[in-house]
Design goal:
alpha/beta, seven-stranded mixed beta sheet, about 15% strand, globular
């Protein structure tokens, strides 16, 4: 039996930590327009509130980020990123739905919708260049109509360029995320996936990945590239050897189990509470509850200031704190 790949969690964590690198690699023209001296602001809670206010309910939106432009204007560029493993027939219409509602709520802001497709299918895409396709939604009835188009970054564009992608990893850690996703969607036997997963981790040293990035990238790879249970022990053995060679601990087997258990518990709690108060709010409560339990288990009583911060945190922040607890030496290190 295979452990289920956690693409959603892996992508959310990767985008939260490597958002500038994500744009630099997959959307360089947008990256060049942003003044990175102003840290990007993740508007997850605002987006969730907007979604819940819709009669249609929650749509599959990943991130909404506000950034400052190079021209110094106060207007914010809102970047909507959606991670889709399949290009479903209603995808373009859903993107239009979000665009209209976001524009209505942020009328003075520049708005750019970006989509990332992680699956192998190219159905519905108009081929572009440099890995960027276009998707559009068109409606026309007599003299009334509209056309809405948005850029789509299809990761399959990189599959035949895996050598080039590997070369980029030394300067951009998000290339490792893309390689992990491509391997995760490869039609390979489990034993081959095991070998490629080990190879990705082993290449951290060759790529010159900084040590403070290695733990995060390892967790993304581990979540994306699931293995059957009978191969998990082989991976743990290979990982232990890599750790000994490089004198670095990525994560212990106990920590891997506890982290997955905490995330699974958070998602389960979210589904249960979602029936009464909305899936997103329920999921936030579930993650917060798991974070609280792990913090109390490791450090004792949770301080009031930490409880207050958790109540105000969005999903991306909670997930970052959940990852930090594995390495934290004191409770303050978790909530940096």
């Amino acid at each position: 039996m295979a452990t289920r790949s956690d693409y959603d969690s892996a992508w959310k964590d990767a985008l939260a930590v490597y958002f500038p690198e994500f744009l630099q690699m997959l959307r360089p023209q947008t990256h060049a327009r942003i003044d990175w001296t102003h840290p990007p602001k993740f508007l997850d809670k605002e987006l969730q509130a907007l979604i819940r206010s819709s009669a249609r309910g929650r749509l599959l939106v990943d991130k909404l980020v506000a950034v400052r432009l190079q021209d110094g204007q106060d207007a914010l560029l809102l970047i909507h990123v959606e991670i889709q493993t399949k290009c479903d027939p209603d995808f373009a219409m859903r993107m239009l739905d979000y665009h209209v509602r976001l524009k209505a709520n942020y009328p003075g802001s520049r708005l750019l919708d970006l989509a990332v497709l992680t699956g192998r299918s190219r159905r519905g895409l108009d081929y572009g260049c440099l890995g960027a396709d276009l998707m559009s939604y068109t409606y026309e009835e007599e003299d009334c109509g509209l056309t809405f188009k948005f850029p789509v970054m299809h990761l399959e564009w990189w599959r035949p360029r895996i050598v080039e992608l590997s070369g980029l990893a030394s300067s951009n850690p998000f290339a490792v995320v893309v390689m992990a996703q491509l391997e995760a969607t490869s039609r390979t036997h489990p034993e081959e996936r095991l070998a490629r997963k080990v190879e990705l981790v082993r290449h951290f040293e060759q790529w010159g990945i900084k040590r403070d990035n290695r733990r995060m990238l390892f967790r993304v790879i581990d979540a994306m590239m699931s293995l059957p249970q009978h191969l998990e022990r082989a991976f743990a053995t290979a990982l232990k050897k890599i750790e000994q060679e490089h004198e670095m601990t990525y994560v212990t087997s106990v920590e891997r189990v506890e982290l997955r258990r905490a995330k699974d518990k958070g998602r389960k709690k979210g589904r249960e509470e979602g029936r009464e108060e909305g899936r997103e709010e329920g999921q936030l409560r579930g993650i917060a509850k798991s974070l609280t339990e792990l913090t109390v288990l490791k450090f004792g009583v949770l301080p009031d200031w930490a409880k207050a911060r958790m109540e105000q945190a969005d999903e991306a922040t909670l997930n970052q704190w959940l990852l930090r607890i594995l390495d934290a030496k004191r409770v303050e290190d978790v909530f940096v």
